[in-house]
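Example 3.2
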Amino acid sequence: MISGDALLFALFLVAVINVSRYVSTLRTLLAVMRECDPLLYQQVDGPGFFTSHGNVSKQIRLFHYIRGQQYQNHHDPVFMQKCVKVRKLFVLASTYLMVFFVSIFVVAYLGI
């Protein structure tokens, strides 16, 4: 039988790896966006996206842009591929984080 600590550590490790993949892909999306669509880059607070003084309402605009799949009408195929990848990795990373947090409660409740 696998111990609860080993299970939590494995799930945490997988979650951290997927979140880092998501953030890395988001950074490359912003770099591609800076070249192919400077207006959108400024609208989503591109230069200050990963800073502590970044504008959250502008960052949420990028979330809604990708969630609504508004990138499908874009002229640059590389940008569209990056948006699809960011969307898939966001779903994957958020799912793994939810599984990790649920497993914390399950392990604590069952005492594994």
